[in-house]
Amino acid sequence: MDAVVWVIGIVVGLVIVVAVLTLALRGMRPKLPAPQVFAPAPTTPRTAASTAAPASSALTPDVVAEIDRLVAANQKIHAIKLYRDHTGVGLKEAKDRIEHWSASTTAPHQAPVSHAAAARSALPAVGLTPSTVRASLPASTASEIDALVAGGAAIAAIKLLRQHTGLGLKESKDLIDTWGTGGR
User: Which of 29, 32, 36, 130 gives 20 to 30 Å between its CA and that of 11?
Assistant: First the structure.
């Protein structure tokens, strides 16, 4: 009988050890990550009126003074953040406004926007010869280009020609290359 009690004790002990080890190992088992559900942040719709109107009216004099201080201290990132916090505008618009901020007048200025087309030459791009271009230039400019070409300063002559005619780089270079050969 004594042996039966020992065998039952060992079996019960083994069952307890197996149960404890199973629970311990189950707790250490890696778990699958919980599926992530995308929930977009609530946004407010922008209307044409809200994006076109300057949001500087929401700035108090204290905020304007702080932005002035930050711009003067060349801390534009902090100035942009402060401007966005108080106006609710987007990052690009806030960056443009701070880039063009005038600390002397303590007022935000609209970023300059050019709606003009690129400057084009009044001269036709095809059939240009040095003589036709020379005729369209003031006499002082034509003589200055002559002197630059004769002196071997072709780059300066190209720059001057482009400045006075609005021609492109290739057209100006081609004209300067043939300027002294038959351009008079």
Answer: 29
Give φ, ψ of 94 to 5 degrees: -65, -40
Closest CA relative to residue 108, chosen from 92, 99, 97: 97
Residue pair 125/171 in contact by the 8 Å Cβ criterion: yes
Q: How far apart are CA 97 and CA 94, in angstroms?
A: 5
Distance (Å, rounded) from C-alpha 78 to C-alpha 95?
A: 11
| Cβ-defined contacts of 89-94 (< 8 Å, 24+) | 89/55, 93/51
Cα-to-chain-centroid distance, residue 105: 26
The CA–CA distances, whole Å, from 137 to 151, 154, 159, 168 equal 20, 17, 14, 16
Terminal C-alpha separation, the chain: 133
The answer to whether 134 and 182 are in contact (CB under 8 A) is no
Asked if 78 and 63 count as a contact pair (C-beta separation under 8 A), the reply is no
pLDDT digits (tens, 9 = 90+) for 13-31: 999 999 998 888 877 777 7
pLDDT for the residue 14: 95
- Per-residue tokens: 67: 């932005």
DSSP state at residue 39: -
The candidate with the shortest Cα–Cα distance to 76, out of 99, 47, 42, 105, is 99
Structure tokens at 127: 């059939």
8 Å CB contact between 178 and 130: yes
